[in-house]
Write a structure and sequence with these properties.
The complex is a heterodimer of chains A (235) and B (291). Chain A has 235 residues and is an all-alpha fold. Helices cover 78% and strands 0% of the residues of chain A. Chain A contains 11 helices and no strands. In chain A, helix 4 crosses helix 7 and helix 10 runs antiparallel to helix 11. In chain A, 40% of the residues are buried. About 6% of the residues of chain B have low confidence. Chain B contains 11 helices and 13 strands. Chain B has 291 residues and is of the alpha/beta class. The chains are: A mainly alpha (235), B alpha/beta (291). At the A-B interface, helix 4 and helix 10 of A face helix 4, helix 6, helix 7, strand 10 and helix 8 of B.
Chain lengths: 235, 291
């Protein structure tokens, strides 16, 4: 077990990188997921169709395949995902701004995949709002946008909190894949490094990275439970 | 009811599959070979059993690559066959097990295979868990670049922090190149196979691929118009045969076999038939390290 102490800095570095990618991917997925959710509940049929197709494609494809498309498909199309090198962000997260595109590719894959689930979590929240509320708002003459902003979304958030949290926890666990698509130094790739190149026994290393993931996911789960108690819709 | 029936069919199908998957072994050959070994030694056990499990790579051109024949082929495999022959076991009784870099020590320690010949660089860290016979070949790390690239001349070219290099997770070359790059996070890419590295080099995401020269020569052999080596070997990577740490007898038996193979020319022939086809130099036989 002394690998945990000897190589603490390696584990810490892996944890840090995984945390970075998870924070960025969570932000991206929440934004994109919200947009898709709005599309799916909008009154305009073509927009609804776009949202539905998006969710069906990304919800039903294995993340590994999405990652493959991002890491090997985008370069084939001649893209290095440079649009993600956002001026202020790339100084905070230096992996975003490098010429090496793989961190960005992994981010794109995680965001696209997770957004589908975020969208469905949000929609389940919207469905939890009694239809009478939206109908009442419509009859008062609120537009679709006003209706969402003032009546439906404030109430649906509460019902979405728990499913959203589950989606984000799933995303953190899914981030374990990025190490196999060219991102160097995240938790799971760290394990690979330690067990093969440096010859440490597998089990202590696996325990080490498990702890890393648990540090991220368990508090999030606990936080969700508390939010649920305080926030969720009283039934 | 409908669901139950479907489930039953699925279960039967799964069982049938499982049974066929296990049904590959049909009886044993009762031959004991014409060799005799010290009682209780690994050699004797293997000879008695008349079968052996060998761990090798399935994706390493020239050393151990599983092709259309369904059996891995290459220099590692040929060396393993020489050892197997010396044990008095027929070639068709070898069971090949794929051993990617990260599982090699574990399969030896757990006894899943009898020996590992898989471009296995001898180093002290690994010697803590297993033992090496050999070396039977000395490779060296080198750098593959695009044919028209003149900016990379050796590992020192990565020190300025602009050039990006690709290697394979958990490999010795990946560890070595880390000492040359300025910032691992922004210059080093690691995949699980070198093929992905080659594609990244072709696509321009990285400027170079680094690993043992023989693997790179394999790529050049397949695509001379695109790639070349930058500079010369900058490390020495002695390849050994991995065996259980406590099995000194088996190790020295393999060492004797390797010495014999070098002397009678079968070592060189193994090379010429496999990795030698890429134009890789064999060089003089490395001195066996008996420890």
């Amino acid at each position: 077990m002394n690998v945990l102490i000897d190589k603490f800095d390696v584990f810490a570095g892996g944890f840090w990188l995984t945390l970075q990618i998870c924070v960025l991917a969570a932000i991206g997925a929440l934004i994109l997921g919200a947009i898709v959710a709005v599309l799916r509940i909008s009154p305009v049929p073509p927009l609804r169709a776009v949202g539905t197709v998006y969710v069906n494609v990304f919800r039903n494809m294995p993340l590994t395949v999405v990652m493959f498309f991002a890491a090997f498909g985008l370069p084939a199309l001649g893209s290095n995902a440079d649009f993600l090198r956002i001026p202020v962000l790339d100084s905070l997260f230096n992996r975003l701004g490098t010429d090496l595109p793989y961190f960005r590719f992994a981010l794109i894959a995680l965001v696209l995949y997770t957004a589908a689930f975020v969208c469905e979590a949000l929609r389940s929240g919207v469905n939890a709002v009694p239809p009478g509320q939206a109908e009442a708002a419509r009859s008062l003459g609120l537009t679709f946008g006003q209706n969402l902003r003032h009546v439906v979304l404030p109430q649906s958030w509460k019902a979405s909190v728990v499913p959203l949290g589950s989606v984000i926890i799933a995303m953190i666990k899914n981030s374990a894949l990025v190490g196999f698509f060219g991102v160097v130094g995240d938790l799971s790739q760290t394990a690979d490094q330690l067990t093969s190149a440096e010859g440490y026994a597998f089990i202590p290393v696996a325990i080490g990275i498990s702890i890393g993931y648990l540090i991220m996911t368990v508090p999030l789960g606990a936080l969700l439970d508390r939010l649920e108690k305080r926030q969720a819709v009283a039934r | 009811m409908r669901i139950k029936r479907v489930a039953a069919v699925a279960a039967v199908a799964a069982l049938a599959l499982g049974l066929t998957a296990c049904g590959g072994d049909d009886g044993e050959d009762a031959g004991s070979g014409s060799k005799s070994f010290a009682a209780g030694s690994t050699m004797e056990k293997l000879n008695k059993a008349q079968k052996i499990k060998i761990g090798t790579k399935f994706d390493q051109p020239g050393f151990g690559q599983k092709g259309l024949s369904g059996k891995p082929e290459g220099f590692d495999v040929e060396i393993a066959k020489i050892i197997v022959k010396e044990l008095g076991i027929p070639e068709d009784k070898i069971e090949y097990v794929e051993t990617p870099s990260k599982v090699r020590e574990d399969v030896i320690v757990n006894g899943n295979v009898d020996l590992v010949a898989a471009t296995y660089t001898i180093n002290d860290k690994r010697k803590e868990r297993i033992a090496f016979a050999g070396p039977y070949y000395e490779a060296g790390q080198n750098i593959l670049v695009k044919k028209d690239d003149t900016t990379i001349t050796g590992p020192d070219s990565f020190k300025d922090g602009t050039k990006k290099v690709c290697s394979v997770t958990g490999s010795t070359p990946a560890e070595t190149i880390k000492q040359y790059v300025k910032d691992v996070g922004t210059q080093l890419v690691l995949f699980d196979t070198y093929d992905k590295c080659r594609d990244a080099l072709k696509g321009g995401q990285v400027n170079a691929v680094t690993t043992d020269n023989v693997i790179l020569l394999g790529y050049i052999a397949k695509d001379e118009a695109s790639f070349k080596l930058a500079g010369t070997n900058f490390t020495k990577e002695p390849y050994g045969i991995g065996v259980k740490k406590e099995d000194a007898d088996f190790r020295s038996f393999i060492n004797d076999t390797l010495d014999k193979a070098v002397a009678d020319g079968s070592w060189k022939k193994a090379w010429d038939d496999t990795a030698g086809k890429f134009g890789a130099e064999l060089g003089a036989a490395p001195t066996i390290n008996r420890y």
